Amino acid sequence: MSTTIRRAAMLNRALLLRASLDALRKLDPRRLVRNPVIFVTEIVAILVTVLAARALAVGQDWTFQAGIALWLWLTVLFATFAEAVAEGRGRAQADSLRRARTDTRAKLLLRADDRSLFQPRASTELRVGDLVLVEAGDLIPSDGEVVEGIASVNEAAVTGESAPVIRESGGDRSAVTGGTLVVSDWIVVRITAAAGSTFLDRMISLVEGAARQKTPNEIALDILLAGMTIIFLIAVATLVGLASWNGQPPSVPVLAALLVTLIPTTIGGLLSAIGIAGMDRLVRFNVLATSGRAVEAAGDVDVLLLDKTGTITLGNRQAACFIPVPGATEREVAEAAMLSSLADETPEGRSILALARERHAMEAPALPDGAQVIPFTAQTRISGLDLVQGSYRKGAVDALVKSVGGQAPAELRAAVDRIARAGGTPLAVARNGQLLGAIELKDIVKTGMRARFDALRTMGIRTVMVTGDNRLTAAAIAAEAGVDDFIAEATPEDKLAYIRKAQAEGRLVAMAGDGTNDAPALAQADVGLAMQTGTQAAREAGNMVDLDSDPTKLIEVVEIGKQLLITRGALTTFSIANDVAKYFAILPAIFVASYPELGALNIMALASPESAILSAVIFNALIIVALVPLALRGVRYVPVGAAALLRRNLLIYGLGGLLAPFIGIKIIDLILVLLGLA
Amino acid sequence: MTAIGWAQIALVLAAIVAAAIPLARYIAAVAAGRVTFLAPLERAIYAAGGIDPARGMGWKAYTLAMLAANLAGFLLLFSLLRLQGLLPLNPQGFDGLSPWLAFNTAISFVTNTNWQAYSGEAAMSYLSQMAGLSVQNFLSAATGIALALALCRAFAGGGLKELGNFWADFVRMNLYVLLPLAIVVGLAFVALGMPQTLAPYVEATTLEGATQTIPLGPAAFQIAIKHLGTNGGGFFGVNAAHPFEGPSALATSLQIWSHQVIPFALALVFGHMVRDSRQGWALLAVMLAFVLAGTWIVYASEAAGNPLHLAAGVSPALGNMEGKEVRFGLALGALFVATTTGASCGAVNLMHDSLMPLAGLVPMFLIQLGEVLPGGVGSGLYGMLVFVLLAVFVAGLMVGRTPEYLGKKVQAREIKLAMLAVLVLPAAILGFTAISLVLPFATSSLQDAGPHGLSEMLYAFTSAAGNNGSAFGGLTADTPWLNTTLGIAMALGRFAYIVPMMAIAGSIAAKPKLAASSGSFPTHGPLFVGLLAGVILILGGLQFMPALALGPIAEHFLLFAGKTF
């Protein structure tokens, strides 16, 4: 997951070489039987190979049979190759993770209350519940919970982010990951995962695809494909009887060619690669899912629960407008606010300068000589600047009103109430002991969020903002951000109850969380995205972990899930639609011996029956390779409504699947003729 | 093709759709138990059978009750046909049927196929026609509707364990839907000149002085239910082409109306029951599109005429009139062909064997597509819904969600069962046809060589497995081999399909019903109609292409090259 891996090319030479070897290994029928379509293709390939060998042995013409056999084997090989490539990309990532999982000597504490008394113990021998001391320079031996102390930890091995993070006992930053490095200070860690089942181990097996199980939709699709295979087996097998009624039945290699081109080899060959690549896309995005099922569920999500702070809003308040009291102008308020904030380095202070520049074209001067800075303290709750031309103050409204020794004008009180109701924070501004007006500080909604929520809505996903703010404030921010619903004054129980209610209505819910008190909701949600910086409890409860700890990524996770499903559906449609053209290639070729008039169906004007059959088989094999990049990359996802998406994809993959093979088979036939092979 | 021909077709189809709309509302009300004008009779039937109509049944109980009813019907009909020589109402003194023929006929009428390996006027006593075949016409039709209602209920609610009560649905559909309609249509047929009498056949002396026996019988009401229930088993051997069974163009139009109106109405009933009428209209649109396309191909092929006839000097304006009834003409003939095969009826008013090759392909293909266009009463709707699930699954993934239909997720279990159901037709049709074509004692039943002979065999198994019952002709079907294998094909096509379909109903019913959002797959509107049509063609039809290429398609090219067999 380090940055070097992220930059790894999608396909490089070493990866392809290894995938080719793996593809050969996967030809083992015992492994291939999991994939019924390709398994049938392999059986047929073996059969035709035997027939070609027999023809060779008895001195008959064997070249056509050998050609068919060769391309049937290539069909199988291309399918196993697709899977091997997808797995190979994951394996490269797993290898780099494995380097972080070196055996370390842990300092096992003998008594919980005495950290001077420890004995060395191999990290592989640690048990859940053991307490270990980790000091500056030590690798954390296994996953655990900090029970004592505070330390900065470099988690680059897991997250790829080299800036150290703080880990401390209590609170929401208590989880540590095995294989990460303590850079300063010390912590006592209670081990929560035995060797072999740590976070790192899970990550490795996940990206390698070792623990891969078929997802529900994949199983359903497999059944559909197996069913179609049986149907076409019936159609081809019965052809022997039907054709012998008036003439000779077609030869076995020809029937084999017909069967293999009709059964859905394209999607059958790419199905598992699509699934692996979907997981892999998530990994590249620095999100780890505990199962493919979770990725698929992400595509199905109906409701997104998003925390307000940090996800929807920037999380720090910014100046939004200046409000003068009667007798003062807005410009005066802006100027006083700007001057009082000259020395204020907080984001709020910077935002006041920015607003003054933006609204009144006031460039903040450099701090003049002799200016006296009045710093903000928790006691006074006022800050400001004394200059030659006067004193400027800003601060909490009640504190400043009190300090100037007067009554706040009714207009100011009204403005302050309005700001508070809208979820903002009012600051009062004074010049030379005289109240000028107020500044409205607001929690700013991140740019582009409204558009993203609109996009989610067209995808049929409701967004729900979760916040600790009161109802009025929450309503105001919800309206500004454009979310569909909000939970105000939210407690963890509220979240859990909301999720349960939505699920009872049959909706799938996704949420992001990091704290221990998020754990029940994360576990209840269909997609629970835990933050890597969060607590161990949260990480255990969720079915995905975001290594970048960015809750906004929940939206992209949903998109990746959808992309996975769309890719499967698109390639299935394409594969099935291909059959029409293959009929037009093969049927006239098969029957033209019995009924020369059926040559009229040869609308592609293929050169000869042999070249027609061979072209169809070659197209059928090559299309798998041609679609490998699409299977790995995924079909492009556009956030539009389902109806528009269906129209678009039906046009591209349905109609495209109908037409593409006509062109492809014709071109291959022309090449075969040019090469003198037909 | 002529404008007046298309006007006839349009008029009949408009009358069907216009009547389907109120009929659908009525059937939905009957299904919900809101129609009670025969309540005393209904209660008496329940009391006699010890039935509690309010007791809900899960899919297994519902299916078992259906199977029990059908098994009883089969045994009764089989015994009746074997023993008809000893029973009353047999003025012509017909003997009992052979065991093979009785087996075949009993299966045929129980499965709503109504394949006829016998000729009614030469083999069936009046008692067999009335108490045996007519009764099964009602019961098999009501069975189909009941099953379709159970599937509709599965989609209508969320987390259901029960699909209704089979006996209640069965009784209500007979009492409130099929009987009243049959009485009205039967009276209309009597008025249009069909016989309804228990008198023996009439001996007439022709102008040349020869003696001719004119068969009669209680025909009109049996023909009414034969069409309304999409049964199709004719009272007379040549079915609706017989002057007493199809006395006029108006009568043939009313027959077409009768075998289309309930299947089309049931599509709309589905819309009512899932409380979204657009869903019903989408299904109806697909059905109507295929009926129109099929009619057009048949009409165009026949109107173009047979090139060999044209070469021999037949006027091109006549089209191919071989095997047609001049009273009906090409347009009503073409519409009858497409509707009787699209609707699993199987009545015929012309000889399918004499159709031009491509026109003959249409009825075969419409049956092979699964008898869902609009299909048999009930069976058309539930077959269509199986295709809907497959269409939604294949294309639904393309909107980036687990596919769902009407708020019900379509998952591995449904797909497994749907594929099991879809497998039945190709296995039965292609399997039995291929075996029969290599067995000399089976091929000896065929009248023709070459592709046409293949079509004759393929059509027979297609018709049987699809529970259609129409005959292509040119096949001596009353042999032990064909009676047995066609009987098995009929049973497979009916019950091997119903069991997985009902398991789907059980599985769908139990799922929660999710609210639709803009992210849900839209299952109404032209896009979905086109998609569903494509999936029916590809998943339902492609597997039959090699067989069709060797039959009607080969024959077409050969005929136009001047070759016949």
Secondary structure elements and pairings:
The complex is a heterodimer of chains A (678) and B (565).
Chain A: H1 3-6, H2 13-25, H3 29-32, H4 36-57, H5 63-100, E1 105-111, E2 114-122, E3 131-135, E4 144-154, H6 156-159, E5 165-168, E6 175-176, E7 181-191, H7 199-208, H8 216-244, H9 252-262, H10 265-284, E8 287-289, H11 292-300, E9 303-307, E10 313-324, H12 330-340, H13 347-360, E11 372-374, E12 382-387, E13 390-396, H14 397-403, H15 410-421, E14 425-431, E15 434-445, H16 449-458, E16 462-466, H17 471-481, E17 485-487, H18 492-504, E18 509-513, H19 519-524, E19 527-531, H20 536-541, E20 544-546, H21 554-577, H22 579-591, H23 609-633, H24 642-674
Parallel strand pairs in A: 9-16, 9-18, 16-17, 18-19, 19-20
Antiparallel strand pairs in A: 1-2, 1-3, 3-7, 4-5, 4-6, 4-7, 8-20, 10-15, 11-12, 12-13, 13-14, 14-15
Chain B: H1 3-31, H2 39-49, H3 59-83, H4 99-110, H5 120-123, H6 126-156, H7 166-191, E1 202-205, E2 211-214, H8 219-228, H9 249-273, H10 277-304, H11 307-311, H12 329-342, H13 357-368, H14 379-396, E3 404-405, E4 408-409, H15 412-438, H16 440-443, H17 450-465, H18 480-510, H19 525-541, H20 545-560
Transmembrane segments (chain B): 6-28, 61-81, 138-156, 176-194, 256-274, 281-299, 328-348, 355-373, 379-399, 420-442, 486-506, 527-549
InterPro entries (chain B): KdpA
Keywords (chain B): Cell membrane, Ion transport, Membrane, Potassium, Potassium transport, Transmembrane, Transmembrane helix, Transport
